[in-house]
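A reminder from the course coordinator: this example appears on the midterm review sheet, so study it carefully.

Given structure:
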């Protein structure tokens, strides 16, 4: 029988203007089963290369680290094209990483943007390519490290209470929007 993953932290980035340069806020919504348990706030660099290191530090330094069993991400990149090395993140934290998206990404467009317009684009594209294509699970698409497809499906099913997006990610998205706009809006 596979281990039930019940203590989850879902991260999403805050909105930012198209011409913005600098640090982008990230929000982690902490859940213990269906109970919203807390928030982790931090930042990553817009189009940078520090997402995995910063997320690992935020989680490890939090009071939630001892009980965390899974980290969810709203997409593989935060803050524009700060691509998260989920293999490194998994290794640093010692627990599984689950990337969730509403739809499969347009990999050709992402590759073109990375290679033509983003510093370090080749390295970032290599990270994305190394993960392989996203897998459909229910109404979302996922990439995963450290958990089986069955565990991913079970986790999505348990945490997608009010939307196709699991609650830790939906909550992180709502909080991140409110930090910037004063109130939450939009779909994750």
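Designed residues:
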């Amino acid at each position: 029988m596979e281990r039930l993953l019940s203590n989850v932290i879902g991260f999403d980035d805050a909105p930012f203007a198209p011409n913005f340069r600098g640090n982008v806020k990230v929000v982690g919504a902490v859940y213990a089963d269906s109970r919203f348990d807390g928030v982790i706030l931090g930042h990553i660099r817009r189009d940078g290369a520090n997402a995995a290191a910063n997320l690992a530090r935020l989680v490890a330094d939090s009071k939630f680290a001892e009980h965390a069993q899974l980290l969810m991400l709203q997409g593989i990149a935060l803050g524009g094209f700060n691509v998260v090395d989920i293999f490194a993140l998994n290794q640093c934290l010692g627990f599984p990483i689950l990337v969730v998206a509403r739809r499969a990404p347009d990999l050709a467009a992402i590759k073109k943007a990375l290679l033509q317009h983003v510093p370090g684009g080749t390295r970032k594209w290599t990270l994305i390519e190394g993960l392989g294509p996203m897998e459909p699970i229910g109404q979302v698409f996922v990439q995963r490290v450290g958990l089986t497809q069955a565990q991913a499906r079970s986790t999505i099913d348990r945490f997608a209470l009010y939307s196709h997006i699991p609650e830790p990610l939906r909550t992180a998205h709502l909080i991140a929007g409110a930090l910037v706009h004063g109130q939450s809006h939009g779909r994750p």
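The chain has a mean pLDDT of 93. Helices lie at 51-60, 86-93, 107-117, 121-131, 149-159, 167-181.
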